[in-house]
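**User:** Here is a favour to ask of a fellow structure person. Please take any protein you like and set down a full record of it. No explanation is needed for now; the record alone will do.

**Assistant:**
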Amino acid sequence: MTGIASGEADDRQGLNLTGWTVLSVATLGAFLSALDSNIVALALPKIALDFSSGVSYLGWVITGYILATVILLLQAGRVGDRYGRKRIYLAGFALFGIASALCGVSQSIYQLIAFRVLQGAGASMLQATTSPLVFESVPTRLRGTAMGVIATTWAVGAVAGPVLGGLLVAVDWRLIFYVNVPIAAAGVLIGARVIPKRAARQTQSEGRFNLLNSLLLGVTVAASFIWLTFFDLRFAAIAVASMFGLIVAESRSRNPIINRELRRNRVFVLGAVTLGVSQLGYLGTPFALSFYFQSVHGFSSVVAGLFIAPLPVALVLSNPTAGRLFDKLKRPTYLTLVGAIVEGLAMVGVGAAILAGSSPVVLGLLLATIGLAGGFIWTPLISGILASVGAERRGLANGTAITLVDVGYGASIALVIAVSAAFLPHAVVSQVYLGNFGALTAAQRGLFGQGIALAMTTMGLINFLVVVLVLVLLRVERRAG
């Protein structure tokens, strides 16, 4: 076991030294992940100018990264459970830093996408091990608080992303990748010293790598994203065929990538699906608004970053509160229900505000509302997911849940592209999405802005599907006691 007994034995003594040291390193990884995701979205309009790329290709700067995490995350969780999470966590930090440097020296959009895929591989190793390392190093009664601290750190990185990113992009967009290198180096050096040795020990984990099923999962997700971002129905057929093959292979495999016991755990399954769908209805927002502020309205990257910042600032405020309430409430899933309703209304409001030509102040207030609601969705769900499974499978559980989050993230980007293009003339789609985005006319920018408004409204409506899923989850939780 990887320190579970230690964390739970100290339940009455508060957060011990081991818990603090692991939490400190985990927060560094969370900060880097959030910083990177927000900075990249803000830089895309400038990257479009340098590489003469359309929105569909630019979207793959993010979705390529996500695709790598989707393919590797479950296996990274399995390897962490079997061979030690410390090793996988530190290796992920190192790979992330190396890939960031390569992204900075990219000479074409294709090179940048390829190096982002490599960066995503490093991120999968970080994501698969962060929450289990923390969750098992703190007392049971403080786990919600610890998850809230991680989420808060993520939010701090998300706040720094638009502000710092706006400044760096104004100088040179390549700096947004170079800034990751010293942070990753610090994470490796500090983590090697402070993460306890027991986190490097082998633990029980069934099975080995399942290359075939992982590839089928990757093809399913990749083909779906290509279909939505490049508008080619042939890839929809490939996605359906690959998904069917994955279902058959998983049902027959002795070593499925989604653990059988996890599949039989209804609380886990519903919680993970709800978490993934919630991210589908949210995570495309910075991507969409970066283009809206910079490309439609012509604001600088610095100003655009400041306009987007209310969303992550509000997350900083809501996540710790949600974590504390998780520790105190008998049924903390109700927090997610409230959060999904509020977030859905605010997202629809953003779409309406864009169509009405409202001021950035109005949009800022709506984004702050989305951020406040987001903390009450994420922290209770991820904490509940980990609490619903045994300690020996928390790595797999975390990896499975975060895989669905990543699928939701990539699908959210693809959804923004697909919906924003759906009602535009073919000539505009060819220019904006598949051609040179940097050479738009004023009329094309206006149509693109309307498409973004429709995409935001669609994401808002998805939050009401989250409401339905949460109601089902609450019913299952009551039956499970």
Q: What stands out?
A: The mean pLDDT is 84.
